[in-house]
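Q: Hi! First time asking for a complex rather than a single chain. Here are the components, and I think there are two in total. Is that enough to go on?
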Amino acid sequence: MEADFPDPTDWIQTPVPGLQALETSLRCQVCKELFTAPKVTSCGHTFCSLCIRRCLSASSKCPTCMKPDEEPRLRDNIVVSELVNSFNTIRKSLLDTLVAKEEARKQAEEEAQRDSRTRPKPEKRSSYDLDDDEIMEDAEPAHRPQVKKRRRQETITSRKPQEIEPPRRSTRTSSQRTNSRAGSSQVISIPDSDGDDDDFQPIEDLSEGEFRPSSRSKRKTTSRAPTTPTKKSDLVACPVCDRQKEQLAIQSHVNRCIEGNRSPSPSPGLANGTSSTGTPLKRQTASFSNISKSQHRAPYTAEERERLRLPKGNASLAKEADIRKKLRDHGIRYDVKGKETKQVLWTRLQEWTNLWNANLDSDNPKLKHVLIRELEAYERSQATQKHSVVQDKDFEREVWGSTHKPGFDALIATARNSRKKENGAETEATDQPLDSVAGAQAELTGIDSPEIVEA
Amino acid sequence: MSVSTSTMAPAASSSNTTNVTKRLQKELMQLMMSPSPGTSAFPDDPCNLLKWTATIVGPDDTYFAGKTFKLSFSFPGDYPLQPPTVLFTTPMFHPNVDMAGRICLDILKDKWSAVYNIQSILLSLQSLLGEPNNKSPLNGQAAQLWDEDPKEYKRLLEKRHQEAE
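A: Yes, that's all I need. Here is the structure of the assembled complex.
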């Protein structure tokens, strides 16, 4: 179970339970996974790119502090991204090491008790304390991560022989220091945790070996450029297409946007999306083997991301025909006969925009057809939850019904009374109004009946 | 670095139904490994993580002290973007819980946030037991007795609670 669902609680049984807190802060509070393309909100909270985009589409608030926020204000959290990546690389070996260490310790303790020899136990215990304390109280905070990492790696090498004979551990810390260089270089070459992930990596490295690292570093430097205060503060989101424009140019841009509503935004992104991925929709089914080999492309550069970014749009401004056209342009399925409501189409376009924009932020962007498949899967999963929406509505209606029921009853009673009275006077003339009263009554009881049954 | 990011890719590319399941699995793990006192929760069926049964113990110094209450959780397909539907399955007598066990709590409706989880719901419910919102009661009688007639409240609560056994 642990292997399938890595979780911060894995660290509880290790000698360093504090790692639980470390891992918890490296996980997104929405999906509880390690951050994927972390984004920081204007209030300073970090989420996965896709998670925060979905949250903001549902309600324009930060999920943590409920402060209003919007997508164009999201920024890359580069340090967190690096932290997650390096943590993820060492996680399994670190956990294995610590668990083995703990097991060895317990075993040694048991043995010590059995032998009723007290010597190894306190010795070993002190070596742990020393080890952990050193990590916590490292004097130079700037070097801390490196020191920590190196020490962890040392423990891997030093563990292997010592696993068999735990009592020798008391001397470990000193021996570590002497051959630390050799130890660390030795360990880096043990990729035991990532066996299943190497599948497509080499392929990409083969094809664009030099490009990957350079594009990554380029992205990091360039993506910081827009965050510089002078430039970004002048930018305003266009109310029509949601793109960031300079304040001075916004008026003319809005005018252009309103005139040719759809022309400026989606087409360039789309054209580039398909051409850069190299798999136009038509070819996808034919060359399946090609696709399965490389489902990812190199990370987007900052310029590419800005250019390809899809605008969020506005539900009330968007016309149904436009939504259909956009979906068609992106190669997303929709009901041609027009059986789907505007709401359904709009939700689909929103989810597509979220997936697409989050994918631009990814270190390992997926190809377009993979995204489309994800969109379809997401919609399927949504279909299963419809009942809960209905329940919510029912709930409101029931409360409303039960509070107003006395009123309805009174109305019905007066209607009946007046009917009796009028019945005696003139039967023919009252036929019409009576029918309507009866109809209303039926309607009322129709609405009321579920509440009566359930309450 | 590139290797580590690729571990996330297969997970993200799988169907989103499993995204809900995965998050719930994480929550289950959290609840098992570090439960908060007086609360517990577990899926009804290991194959379907969308339905859970939870229990909370009434906090001390309240009418509910020492009593255990069962709840049912039902998670929508887009959890955690939408809140779960939470019902008291143990008969309840509380200003913000109606006779069918439905709960009036802001974080289960409009104040829901994707960072909340089962544990935070259970803790909120526990504190709701001690501090009801009498301004918008679902159970008017309970709201009235809560302030005016603690004895009668206690009697009716006991009566309701005994229906459970």
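A: Chain B touches chain A through 47 residues (CB under 8 Å). Let me know if you'd like any chain examined more closely.
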